[in-house]
């Protein structure tokens, strides 16, 4: 039987799958481990000046770690999904702009590290690269953990929102310790005010609701079961922020990162063939 030629998009998606599959351990473990070392060395001013918190190296590393998630979701991006993801990008910029200008909903804070080009001199242009994967990774992990319970909206959405907030409970203390940003009023949770997490409940609820409507959940779950690397970006999250939190003694945040690692282990996502 003659082989059927894939359309250009299909060929690109298959090629991206192959690149990620062949380099899973490097992308999901080596990159975040090196990233953690580089960030900690930058925080201690141990690197040559231009390399300390180099924004373009940082963005390159983050983009590489996002590849498994991008490759995993790409075949599911219909026109409806694209509109939803575009809306989420706009929402990310909007709520961050409001937050910086008013201190609501996260609390008053300022960036302390160059995160690349800024929009209006205030909001990082790469913000969706940081925000959206938190929501998508939480959504995917919860689909696996909940199983058939994920069919119930009243269960699925609150659990995913809780997972997103839990991820920020692991991330924000590490980011503050590194000096990525600082809250004017501080906070007893490793320098982070609880108002930040109240804000995250709000922003996560909106983002999860949009994502839930944008993606076909049945097709997403089917792809998730077939695509072994689809949650590797969450593996990177556990490695990177777990290491940083341990270094600074943020033990609760480190344990939360480890909890997500446990979720990955329970769902059989720590498998890196050919490493």
Automatic annotation (TrEMBL):
Q: What is its EC number?
A: 4.2.1.161
GO molecular-function terms, A-Z: lyase activity
The entry's keywords: Lyase, Membrane, Transmembrane, Transmembrane helix
Specify whether Membrane is a keyword of the entry.
yes
**Which InterPro entries does the record match to this protein?**
BABR_hydratase, CruF, CruF-like
- NCBIfam families documented for this protein: crt_membr_arch (TIGR03460), CruF_Halo (NF041333)
UniProt-recorded name of the protein? Bisanhydrobacterioruberin hydratase
């Amino acid at each position: 039987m003659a082989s059927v030629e894939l359309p250009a998009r299909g060929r690109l998606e298959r090629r991206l799958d192959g690149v990620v599959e062949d380099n899973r351990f490097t992308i999901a473990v080596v990159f975040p481990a090196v990233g953690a070392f580089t960030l900690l060395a930058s925080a201690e001013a141990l690197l040559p000046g231009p390399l300390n918190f180099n924004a373009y190296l940082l963005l390159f590393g983050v983009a590489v770690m996002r590849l498994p998630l991008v490759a995993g979701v790409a075949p599911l991006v219909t026109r409806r999904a694209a509109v939803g993801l575009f809306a989420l990008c706009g929402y990310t910029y909007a709520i961050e702009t409001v937050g910086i200008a008013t201190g609501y909903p996260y609390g008053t804070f300022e960036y302390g590290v160059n995160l690349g080009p800024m929009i209006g001199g205030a909001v990082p242009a790469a913000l969706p690269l940081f925000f959206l994967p938190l929501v998508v990774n939480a959504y995917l992990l919860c689909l696996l953990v909940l199983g058939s319970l994920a069919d119930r909206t009243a269960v699925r959405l609150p659990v995913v929102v809780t997972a997103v907030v839990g991820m920020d409970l692991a991330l924000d203390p590490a980011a503050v310790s590194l000096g990525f940003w600082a809250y004017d009023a501080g906070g007893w949770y490793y320098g982070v005010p609880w108002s930040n997490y109240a804000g995250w409940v709000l922003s996560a609820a909106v983002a999860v609701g949009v994502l839930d409507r944008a993606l076909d959940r049945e097709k997403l779950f089917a792809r998730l079961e077939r695509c072994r690397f689809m949650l590797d970006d969450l593996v990177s999250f556990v490695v990177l922020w777990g290491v940083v939190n341990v270094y600074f003694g943020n033990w609760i945040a480190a344990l939360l990162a480890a909890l997500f690692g446990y979720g990955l282990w329970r769902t059989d996502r720590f498998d890196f063939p050919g490493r």
